Amino acid sequence: MGSDPKRIAALIGNPNTGKTTLFNALSGLRQRVGNYPGVTVETKKGQMCCGGQTFELIDLPGTYSLSPRSPDEMVAVDVILGRQQGEARPDVVISIVDASNLERNLYLTTQVLELGVPVVVALNMIDVATAQGIRIDTERLSRQLGVPVVAIQANKKKGLEALREAICRAASGAALASQESARGTNAAPLATHRPPFPEVFECAIHQLHRELGEDIPEYLLRRLVLDVGGWTEQRLVAQFGEGIRQKAQEVRQRLAQAGCPVPAVEARARYGWIREVTAGCIQRPAQRAVTWTDRIDRVLTHKVWGTLIFLTLMFLVFQAIFTWARPIMKVISDGKDALAELLRGQLPPGPFTALLLDGVLEGVGAVVVFLPQILILFAFLAVLEDCGYMARAAFLMDKLMARCGLSGKSFIPLLSSMACAVPGILATRVIENRRDRLATILVAPLMSCSARLPVYILLIGTFLTGPGFARWLPGLVMFAMYAIGLVLAPLMALVLKRTLLRGQTPVFVLEMPLYKVPSPRLVLRRMLDSGWAFLRRAGTLILASMVVVWALLYFPRGGGPEQPPYDVRIAAMQKELDDLKDQGRAGGVNSPVNEQGRAEGVNSPVNEQGRAGGVNPPVEPGEQGVSPPRLFYQLLEGKEQQINECIAEWKRQSYLGRMGKAIEPAVRPLGWDWKIGMAALASFPAREVVIGTLGIIYSTGKQDSDEIRNAANVADTLLARRMKEARWDDDPTRPVFTIPTALSLMVFFALCCQCASTLAVIWRETHSWRWPAFTFTYMTVLAYLGALVVYQIGRLLGG
Amino acid sequence: MSRERKSSFAPWRTNMPSLDQLRPGQCGRIAALTGNDGLVQRLMEMGLLEGEEVEVLALAPLGDPLEIRLGDSRLSLRRSEAARIHVSLS
Questions:
Q1: Do A142 and A228 share a domain, yes or no?
Q2: Which chain B residues are closer than 8 Å to A69 by Cβ?
Q3: Which of A134, A148, A161, B70 has its CA 20 to 30 A from that of B9?
Q4: For residues A654 and A556, what is the distance between their CA atoms, to the nearest angstrom?
């Protein structure tokens, strides 16, 4: 970048006009996402070169009108007026319009013309218009509008050179005009043509302008009067006091008396002018041609066929994130384990290695493992969005979602959340209304995601399957767990929309764009963007939470004057075990495998003696050929058992274990002992971690959730057996896990938000700590109450 | 804020149907918009102005919302919104 101040260009347009495609085509690969405090919309920024100059190109959110009703909608106005903090005023605004729907698109352009910035109109989709028999005289339109108009085809990269040139000229013309405003008659590209508003209105605006001072842009004053209860009104009232609302009201009354009441006056003035301006520029066929969109829509929005196709598509999307992603996720987690194994051999044991391997590497693995689901979902969403189907999906599902206070646009995010809330929450970006979007984000984690599945499978398989249980019971319980989310999420959305997120129902005027073939480049780009954004923003937070929980489970390391810390002892035992295994492999069958093994074993004779004593006598006499290997395996198993018990002892005295003991009084009414409480605490980063932690506490070694998922018979796994054997500390005759306890644990995990990734994504999407904190709190309360009710009722029924 | 703004004549008294009463395939010319300012403003911004011709194209599976054609664009409106748009049948 040179010493010249960089020129700035802003891109604005209606949704579905190919704005993103044009932005990508103009700025290439160098893009970054920016956001402003207090708003949830993001603006993308890129760099564009034209005529030896570098422009910073800002992609403003797509909108039909610059009449802000929320802080989110205010962003575009503020950026163009140069009132957005940290952002210089654009030198030129590119207004992209859809040539096949010119009048409606020009509405926004007329507003942009009033903002006092040079404007270039990019007339996109000129090919679509031509195919429909619509002819547009670009030059004439340019003369009538008073700004340059360039016909382009953003997806084919046609007309971009001319557009760049026009942008460059408009921007430097503006600079010239401001420098030599006296002479610059033909150089000034500032709009002199604009829609005429009634005289009463213009006078009132001038008066207001004088009263309030010159630093309030005229456009904001126009909005103050035109948008009843709009965001401009709220902002100016905050700045100048209630008096200003009064003044606006007076102007509105004067307008109404003059026969042009407030909201109609603006639309009439603008559309009236647009009709005049375009009159000689557009030629339409006498008979509207039947388009492909007409034909396709006849099927896709059909009551029966449309619904069937929609359901099939949704099943496919769900199936894709639920099952297709699994093998890739498995490769990632296997790769992570292999890497950990490799590094463990290379690095010296100690807290640093443990932090690196069990904290950081596990954390990175936990982040990356979401990528397949996110990428697959976003590939689907990008295709559906780009081809124009998304609006139809919202159309088909709107009534259903309206019953819980949401709109059709919330359907796909919630459905995706049944596979995983993380991509589901990311997918809420299509919802423009802030309250609707927040409500969807906040209830999405209630949908039963795939991370809950291992928990359900373990508990159902262990405690509700087998002799004495009806064969349909496991399926029914599993269904019930899914149903909890399906019932509670809409209910919760309704409650939120009635209380915390109360407000006027947003107007649901949805444009049904023309169908088109999706552009692979755009789809790929959206996939990669969403994946990268997730890694960069949410990833760090997930990683941090994993490291914290690791530390709580790692420290204190125990040990004392006569005993080394737990991790050192475990490492030593592990080494012995590995040596034993190596010898077993090297030694073959015939001979002194176990002799040697035992000799080595003397080094740490803790329970070696007991075991040797118990096992040796019966073996030594009898069958010489068979016993040595069997003895060897028993030795190995004993060693492993010893290690697992040592780990369990370590974790029980860790900070997290102590926390588990501390919260025992709170979880006892749920039928849990402190070990379950501790496992629930440890599962804060991710629900499925609860299985690993239970495995550690019950001394079965690290239990993998995939192992449970893939086990032919869950009840036969070591963890299941240990859980069945578990007894209360203060009453060794009473088993911990009864059916009510298992159910209460399942209900807790169905409803809780033990998922750092979800919370991190909520934080990222709402740009605030409040909403993830709220989600975590309400879901934990809900989970606790649900578990309490289930356990207490279960105990009453079961005695 | 959400005052009902009634236009000078009352279309619902002259048996003028609202858009939600039209069947798919029926066309009409917009005669008046009623409802609160925010709603009317949004509808008008989308081009739903007096004098414009609209055609109901389809109904969603549960009968709501409806898909309409307005000039070169296709829009989806909820029944509650369509009920605010009074049309004269053509």
A1: no
A2: 38
A3: B70
A4: 6
Shared-domain flag, residues A221 and A147: no
Q: Domain with A52 in it: what CATH number?
A: 3.40.50.300
- CB burial of A741-776 (b: ≥16 within 10 Å; e: otherwise) equals bbbbbbbbbbbbbbbbbbbbbbbbbbbeeebbebbb
Helix, strand or coil, per DSSP, at residue B86? strand
pLDDT in tens, A581-634: 887 777 654 444 444 444 333 333 333 333 333 333 344 444 445 566 778 778
Residue identified by tokens 């898909």 is B67
Single out the residue in A179, A210, A227 at which a domain terminates: A179
Mark yes or no for CB contact B76/A271 under 8 Å: no
Report whether A383 contacts A404 (CB < 8 A). no
Residues of A in contact with B62 (CB under 8 A): 399-400
Q: What is the mean pLDDT of residues A159-176?
A: 86
Tens of pLDDT, residue by residue over B17-56, are 999 999 999 999 999 999 888 899 999 999 999 999 999 9
Residues A97 and A211 in one domain: no
- The pair phi, psi for residue A431, each rounded to 5°, is -85, 115
Token representation of residue A250: 């007076």
Count of domains for chain A:
3
Domain membership of residue A219 (yes or no) is yes
Q: What is the pTM of this model?
A: 0.80
A194 occurs within a structural domain = no
A101 is a domain residue = yes
Architecture of domain B16-89: Roll (2.30)
For B61, the closest of A227, A229, A396 (CB atoms) is: A396
Domain-wise residue ranges, chain B: 16-89
What is the rounded distance in angstroms from the CA atom of residue A627 to the CA atom of residue A394?
69
Range of weakest confidence among A53-62, A513-522, A564-573: A564-573
Are A34 and A86 in contact, with CB atoms under 8 Å apart? Answer: no
Interface test with A, best of B5, B6, B40, B41 (most A CBs within 10 A): B41
The parent domain of residue A618 ranges over 566-649
Give the model confidence (pLDDT) of A665-677 as tens digits: 999 999 998 889 9
Which residue in A301, A504, A509 is closest to B43 by CB distance? A509
For residue A74, the number of C-alpha atoms closer than 13 Å in the C-beta half-sphere is: 23
pLDDT at A712 (0 to 100): 66
Find which of A395, A406, A514, A516 to mutate to test the B interface (most B CBs within 10 Å of its CB): A395
A119-124 vs A92-98, strand pairing mode: parallel
Instruction: Compare CB distances from B2 to A101, A399, A504 and report the shortest one's residue.
Output: A504
Contact A162, A142 (CB under 8 A): no
Q: What is the ipTM of this complex?
A: 0.88
Q: How far apart are the two ends of chain A, measured CA to CA in Å?
A: 78
The answer on pLDDT for A339 being more than 60 is yes
